[in-house]
Design goal:
five-stranded antiparallel beta sheet, single chain, 37% helix, alpha/beta, Alpha-Beta Plaits, binds adenosine-5'-triphosphate, six-stranded mixed beta sheet, binds magnesium ion
Length: 319
């Protein structure tokens, strides 16, 4: 697998009020080319600090990184030409229109005017800004401004685009829409590195994720892999009211090799099962053989919050 980002021991501390804050404590990241990489973690985890180091805005205290074939420390200028960065606050000037913002960005990257105009026009179409392209960005809705921010980041055709909390503050409809835009960018060959503190966003959007907490990485993998590592699936069975059976049923399931853990509470049998989907037929067969009166059955997958909980001892929602 080819990696467009490889970091080795990145570190950054800040001094504030006479105290040292170790914001990033030695981060090793490997981001596969052409994928959506989700960087997940609670407030203050060190996501933005990492991103600012990778985009040359903040010098690391220690560590090295290669991005898009460039050494972060030795070739920052060339690196900046190959990457795009949309900050948490966005990069648009609210006093200027989408069109003017895009042309200015083209100018900053030294694009010839006709080339910048053609590129701006294409991006205005791609990000569905045509109806508002001549209006001041200060008058845009949150979703419209976010789309402009990303268009600005894409102006110089980067191979790798960093998005810091791209959907914070957007309503569900605009979030879903932005996810589609991000997927489309990925499908067009751009690698996307995005930070988020939304579990569902990382789960739905990212091909691969890294979870950061208090300056260090606590987990890395595809959402599916990570969830599999942690808990297995949960199969919940609602049993009918024939009390004598239940202990026996519990024991029966505890003996099955695919059951990691089984518990019984208030008529509900909970089984933690590896690959629950594949085992459901067998579970049903066993219940049938034991002549158990089954009333309900449900299968649920562990969430990324279960992963976070397992790795840090607390829930991401609380953190
Ligand atoms: N310039 C700075 N001076 C002092 N401390 C800083 C500075 N920038 C960041 N920090 C601290 O470093 C830690 C990591 O901050 P960072 O912005 O990287 O977190 P984050 O994961 O992006 O959080 P969020 O989800 O809230 O955006 C925090 O404790 C923050 O207060
Ligand atoms: Mg941040």
């Amino acid at each position: 697998m080819e990696h467009i980002v490889l970091t080795n021991g990145l570190k950054k501390s800040f001094r504030a009020d006479g105290k040292t804050i170790a914001a990033v404590r030695g981060v090793n990241l490997a981001v596969p080319t052409g994928e959506i990489f989700g960087f997940l973690g609670p407030n203050g985890a060190g996501k933005t600090t990492t991103l600012r180091m990778l985009t040359t805005l903040l010098p690391p205290d220690e560590g090295t990184a290669m991005l898009a074939g460039c050494d972060l420390l030795k070739a920052p200028r060339r690196l900046r030409e190959r990457i795009g960065y949309v900050s948490q606050a966005g990069g648009s000037d609210r006093g200027m229109s989408a069109w003017e913002n895009l042309l200015l960005q083209g100018q900053l990257f030294g694009m010839p005017r006709h080339e910048a105009a053609a590129r701006a026009k294409a991006l205005i179409m791609t990000f569905d800004l045509a109806g508002i392209a001549d209006r001041r960005a200060g008058t845009y809705s949150g979703g419209q401004r976010r789309r402009l921010d990303i268009a600005i980041g894409m102006m110089h055709q980067p191979q790798l685009l960093f998005l810091d909390e791209p959907t914070t503050g957007l309503d569900p409809q605009n979030r879903a829409r932005l996810w589609d835009e991000v997927r489309r960018l990925r499908n067009s060959g751009v690698t996307i590195f995005l930070t988020t503190h939304y579990l569902d966003e990382a789960d739905a959007l990212a091909d691969r994720i890294a979870i950061m907490d208090q300056g260090t990485l606590v987990a890395e993998g595809s959402p599916r892999e990570l969830k599999k590592q942690v808990a297995g699936d949960v199969v919940q069975l609602g049993l009918g009211p024939n009390g004598t059976h239940q202990e026996a049923v519990l024991r029966l399931f505890e003996q099955q090799p695919y059951v990691r853990e089984a518990s019984y509470e208030q008529g509900q049998l909970r089984l933690y099962v590896y690959e629950g989907e594949a085992q459901l037929p067998d579970i049903l067969r066993l219940l049938d053989q034991a002549q158990v009166n089954l009333q309900t059955i449900s299968l649920s997958q562990p969430t990324l919050d279960d992963v976070f909980l397992r790795k840090t001892g607390r829930s991401l929602q609380e953190a």
